[in-house]
Amino acid sequence: MRLTDESQRLARFEWQGEVLHGRLITTDGDDVLEVLAADPLRSAAEPTGRRLPLDDVRLLAPVTPGKIVAVGRNYADHIAELSLDTPTAPRLFFKPPSAVVGPGEAIRYPAQSREVHYEAELAVVIGRTARGITAEQALEYVFGYTCANDVTARDIQREDGQPSWAKAFDTFCPLGPWITTNLDPTKLDVRCEVNGTERQSAGTDTMLHPVASLLAYITAAVTLEPGDVLLTGTPAGVGPVVPGDEVAVYISGIGSLVNPVAGR
Question: What are the Rv2993c-like N-terminal domain coordinates in residue numbering (predicted)?
Fold first, then answer.
């Protein structure tokens, strides 16, 4: 499918045991998925003519990344709440693809942790191979954006002083509900609710390092491939969740990513 200049919502989903890709459209007031012939990230995936009601499918993580690059300490208010130093350059780490789950899937407490935190974030999905790009070029390499929860075992992070292991556990990277194209990543609102109570709220215009600058910085050293994901940091308001809680990440222009928290 050839992407247009209009914003589109592109989903990956399961229907009757089959994994499909589709474009979300509204017909007569109902949300339906227009099934595509292939993954639009990988090929020119034209509509097949099939349409499925959104309520009849199970949404999956909208992308299966080869790698996930994440930035920490990218909002000043979050740095302040954790009493950390402000880095002069982006503070980067990697999350493994095995951490990814989709909408509605459980975030599971690992046996090694007693304090798991939510972190609502804007996720950037790469659409073209990017190496050595400038900030002025960077958004041309973006396929679209989705919601993310950079789940963190905070007690482990405090013990070892670095984020990678504390953020790497299975189920610690919910993504979804779909990829929205053609958004301005500097003008989005990021919110998080736990059990219906708001815990985080900020605009992406308050990032210390905006998306374009992050992509230029990363690709000076690391090649990003189609389907790779960049997590852009979380604002203030992070805190613990326990089994039985429900975490919802909302981003304007995209939608909501909701995940329950389960025990070990």
Answer: 9-62
Residues of the chain with CATH 3.90.850.10: 68-262
SS3 content of the chain, % helix, strand, coil (to 5): 15, 40, 45
Whole-model pTM: value is 0.96
Q: What is the DSSP string of 97-132?
A: GGGEE-TTPPEE--TT-S-EEE-EEEEEEE-S-BSS
Which class is 9-59 in CATH?
Answer: mainly beta
Residue 114 neighbours by CB distance under 10 Å: 13
Per-residue pLDDT of the chain (264 residues; tens, 9 = 90+): 445 568 999 999 999 999 999 999 998 889 999 999 999 998 888 999 999 999 999 999 999 999 999 998 999 888 888 877 888 899 999 999 999 999 999 999 999 999 999 999 999 999 999 999 999 999 999 999 999 999 999 999 999 988 999 999 999 999 999 999 999 999 999 999 999 999 999 999 999 999 999 999 999 999 999 999 999 999 999 999 999 999 999 999 999 999 999 998
Dihedral over alpha carbons 253, 257, 258, 262 (to 10 degrees):
-160
CATH topology for the 68-262 domain? Fumarylacetoacetate hydrolase; domain 2 (3.90.850)
Residues in the chain: 264
The boundaries of every CATH 2.30.30.370 domain in the chain are: 9-59
Place of tokens 């995209």: 254
**Cα end-to-end span (Å), the chain:** 41
| Residue 34, helix vs strand vs coil | strand
